[in-house]
Amino acid sequence: MALELIQFKEPHIRELAKIMERAFDEDTKIHLAKEKGGPDGYDDGSFLRKWGLHKDASSYCILLDGLLIGGVILWIQQDGNNFLGNFFIDPIYENRGIGTKVWSIIEKLYPDTKTWSTETPIFSSRNHHFYVNKCGFHIIRIDNPKNRLEGQYHMQKVMK
Predict the structure, then answer these.
(1) Across the 160 residues of the chain, what is the mean pLDDT of every consecutive 10-residue run?
(2) Cβ neighbours, 10 Å, residue 60
(3) Which of 5, 43, 60, 127 is most buried, taking the most CB atoms under 10 A from its CB?
């Protein structure tokens, strides 16, 4: 199993948007019992075009044995306090340890990182498990804790 991160570019949008749609819809089905759901533009490529191609983002396609299976959007700051904006893998490749391996690659790519921060919806317990138990993040704040649809967990990982 060869995992590789390559720079995300405009030609990747069409295929990556389909993967993103499947990933977010799967999470929505599991946690909210709805067929579809994700951030604005997750299902038509406009999210990836806006954020993945943003001039300040460091965005990657995730390849498994040369096959595109997901993506990640990072915000790398000069002060070393970096932000994980988006991370998704095609549901057919989930629960195989791939996400954890990808996160390890990311940490090695940015060895000067002081902290990694991210946010994830309250309803997405699979994300909480992944970030806290697999990647070493800690929940540092909860916005709208009683609102299952709009509540957010803010997480941080302090690097050594």
Answers:
(1) 96 97 93 91 97 98 98 98 97 95 98 97 93 97 90 95
(2) 23
(3) 60
